[in-house]
Specification:
Elements lengths: L4 H35 L14 H23 L2 H4 L4 H15 L7 H17 L10 H8 L2 H25 L4 H30 L8 H27 L2 H24 L7 H34 L9 H4 L18 H11 L1
């Protein structure tokens, strides 16, 4: 299936966006570390001193550039095409984490990278062509259909419970809490970004959409969702290993975004069964690649601890446990044996 001109434009913007965003993870992580070292309070335990760290702002600017490119990409191509290409940011992040942060990338991680690229190519080839939208009112009708309203309601309820119940109790020990909040809010922000981007695109083409209150409502939703994403992503990055946060966030965010897009924009309407299955298979390959990066990261850490041999598979809570805001991502900085870590965990409990 050939790509339309608009899909090609969206593809190029999405690829550029992933390069910037992947780099921003590493720059921001360095800024968070510097801020924690300088002021003694980590973002993972509620500190906001990273706002005084110039390097963190460099990372933010880099991410903003990537997000702007991503924002524009959604105005040209469907979310089913744009969102999975975020896998490239995982590749960039993993490679730079190995080179700069010394968070080792196992040799098998290369297989994960290849899988991400292969899956992305499959998705690009079978990407759907969107029906042209002539007014923000059309998008508003899509956003207020019962099925999508049910999805939005479910997201709001889940985020509420995660923010006020799970985050205070297990946010620092379970990576799924912070990344889950980011991903849920991210799926709503992407839908709003696509609506807002399409509105601005139509406005620049001479069909003014700023006269409609719906355009401004979508802008408000984007602002709220992005602020929440930034806050909890910072907490996740500062608390857990970058090579863990990035793939988990990508898997959850991409899955939820594609689901939301299918419900709201009906991306799969008009596509054949074989095409849809090809997209699903491509998506599974991408997800498998990101999981491969995650698992090989754990393998490398366990291997280095034991001095060789097949590593055991410690539980997630043991591997990510933290009692004072410092996660086990410090393995690169603290040469601590598994026995010492287990003893410290028992003492803190």
């Amino acid at each position: 299936m050939g790509l339309s001109n608009e899909n090609v434009t969206g593809l190029i913007l999405a690829l550029a966006s992933s390069l910037f965003i992947g780099s921003s993870f590493i720059i921001k992580k360095q800024g968070l570390r510097r801020a924690a070292s300088t002021y003694g309070v980590r973002a993972g335990v509620g500190g906001y001193y990273y706002l005084l760290e110039p390097l963190w702002w460099v990372g933010m600017i880099t991410m903003i550039v990537g997000e702007v490119a991503n924002f524009i990409a959604y105005a040209f191509a469907p979310a089913v095409l744009v969102t999975p290409l975020g896998a490239l940011s995982i590749i960039v992040s993993a490679v730079l984490a190995d080179l700069i942060l010394k968070e080792r990338l196992h040799k098998l991680g290369i297989l994960g990278i290849v899988m991400c690229i292969a899956g992305s190519i499959i998705i690009v080839i079978h990407a759907p062509k969107e029906e042209p939208i002539t007014s923000v009112l059309e998008i508003w009708n899509m956003a207020t259909q019962p099925a999508f309203l049910a999805y939005v309601g479910s997201v709001v309820v889940l985020v509420f419970f995660m923010v006020f119940h799970f985050a205070p109790t297990c946010g620092h020990t379970n990576v799924l809490v912070y990344t889950g909040i980011c991903s849920l809010m991210g799926s709503l922000s992407v839908m709003s970004v696509k609506a807002l981007g399409t509105s601005l695109k139509l406005t620049f083409e001479g069909n003014n959409q700023l006269v409609y209150p719906q355009t401004w409502f979508f802008m408000l939703v984007v602002a709220i969702c992005v602020v929440m994403q930034m806050n909890y992503l910072n907490k996740a990055l500062d608390t857990f290993n970058t090579a863990i946060v990035s793939p988990i966030y990508y898997v959850m965010f991409t899955t939820l975004t594609i689901l939301a897009s299918i419900i709201m924009f009906k991306d799969w309407d008009g596509q054949s069964f074989s095409t849809i299955m090809s997209e699903i298979c491509g998506f599974i390959v991408v997800l498998s690649g990101t999981i491969m990066l995650h698992l090989t990261k754990d393998f490398e850490r366990s291997h280095s601890f034991r001095g060789g041999g097949l590593p055991s598979s410690p539980t997630l809570s043991v591997r990510l446990y933290t009692g004072n805001g410092d996660s086990l991502l410090k393995d690169d900085e603290e040469n601590e044996s598994p026995e010492d870590m287990f003893s410290r965990r028992q003492d803190l409990c």
